[in-house]
Amino acid sequence: MRIIPVAGIFLLGWSAGFVQSVEFTRRLTEADRADYLAYQVRITDLPERREKNTRYKATVEALLCRDTTIRINSRAIIYFSNDLQLNLPVGQRLAIKGKLVRPPDAGSEMGFSYRKYLERNGIPWIGFVKKKEHLVWFDGNRFSPGTIIASLTGKAEQLFRAHLPDADAFGLVKAMILGRREDIRPELNQAFTDSGTVHVLSVSGLHVAVFFSVLHFIFGPLRNLPRGRQLYLVTISAILIVYAVITGLPASVQRATLMCLTWMTGQNLSRKHQPLNTLGIAAFFILLSDPAAFYDVGFQLSFLAMLGIFLWMKPIQSWYTTENRILKHIRDLFAMSIAAQLMTLPLILYYFSQFPTYFLLANLFVVDLAGMLIPAAIGLLVLGATGFETLAGWIGQLISLIAWVINRTVEFPRELPYHVIDHLYLDPIQALLLLVVLLGVYSAWIARLKKAIVFTAAAALGFCIYSAVSVLNDYRHPLVQVVSNGNRLIFKSRSILYIIDKQPVEKNAGISEIETGKYLARYGGNAVRIELQ
After folding, report:
1. Main localisation, per the record (predicted)?
2. Would you tell me how many other CB atoms lie within 10 Å of the CB of residue 78?
């Protein structure tokens, strides 16, 4: 009988995904068939400023034809040239001359598909604006929930900018508290990736947990009052939900917020807390509201990291026992980092083809420092908003110091040899098999399930056989491919992988190095790059 509820959940998920897919296709087809001269949009998010343009998320409200207007409700990303010097408020409505276009697809089997990435976030269109003459302004809705949230986010950003003069400190705090990373230098952003601490830059479970701890400390005494448990639950739940919305509701924040709400509700009802059940409830509600979230890299890594912590942290902690509080804390940090990295390893290799060698060393310092920076940043916002400028300035100096230490810590591993092991390649089947092996090892070794031994051995054997056959096939298979949307030719001759670029590759050309690394990891050989001028 257990199969019935499981089948029901899968059927419900499939139905939600099917309905969303049909609606998405309908909007796409409607816009493709329309012969329109301009389109009307409403800005829905704060700007993300880049080197040459500024990016806004928007809702496409209508397609403006010669004789009629086609109402449409679809999402888009609009790029405005920085030469226009625009600062559009959330809620601003405007008509843009021209047509929406589909995002670029992957230029090769190893390339990053911006189209699929946006489509999984429900965004089928992008638009470009280079001239003010192509814009017509309308009155915006200044009092919608989106404008209120954007106003709060904008005021928080202004307070951070006023009390954090150092650009790197401001960029780090803005990313950690508001979930916006556009002010972080590319070199520093890469340093976080190479050190295995990039999770600190995204508002994630760590940030929500620290924020929840601060709220629990402030509002905990409410539980001692008559009806205090209900007041405690409602107050903290409301603040957590508002904070999650302000950060843009990334998958990791949705998961952490739902887990906190579930835990508090269980405590209020005097129910025992089961971490895996709480994680499952969070995943269920996120996927029910947005089935496409399953394909989001952030969603996958977030849930696998928490699954690893719930499964492996206690067994790893048992390897070393001590009564010393400092040593115990260091042990717990090591155990948490290893547990999270272990379960996310298959996806890290599949998506990024590299592994940060010194992730344990970096996380040992960065996680604690982030735990100090987050409440300090919240304190700065409260003091700055209530007019205590002197105290806010002192807190700002403390935050700048902590941010400086964090940034130097993540940059240090890049000076060490072999700080990143790259050119590691797994295809989807290999990643799935490796994940099955890890779960099987846990079931056989930790949970002591005898049947899991045979299952794990079979999965490990399947992984080895499939990998060996794939490697032999790839090395013997002649490789000649035109990739990167026709701008690059890649071919292999013996042990040399030749990469011929039609035009010079810019330093920050997004997928260039990742794409090249994946080809090297899969097909082997040494790379020789040739640029045609």
Report:
1. membrane
2. 23
DSSP 169: H
pTM of the model: 0.76
The total of other beta-carbon atoms located within 10 Å of residue 18's CB is 11
| Residue 493 backbone phi and psi in degrees, to 5 | -130, 110
Residue 1 lies inside a defined structural domain of this protein = no
Q: How far is CA 312 from the centre of its chain?
A: 23
**Residue at token pair 């990469």:** 499
Q: Does an H or E element contain 81, and which?
A: strand 69-81
Characterise 387 by phi-psi region: left (phi > 0), alpha (psi -120 to 50), beta (else): left
Supply the range of the domain harboring residue 123. 35-142
- Token pair 């589909």 is found at 102
Q: How far apart are CA 246 and CA 248, in angstroms?
A: 5
Nearest to 153 by CA among 248, 240, 246, 88: 246
pLDDT digits (tens, 9 = 90+) for 365-414: 888 888 888 888 888 888 888 888 889 889 999 999 999 999 999 988 88
Instruction: Encode burial over 233-258: b for 16+ CB neighbours within 10 A, e otherwise.
Output: beebbebbeebbbbbbbbbbbbbbbb
Same domain, 466 and 361: no
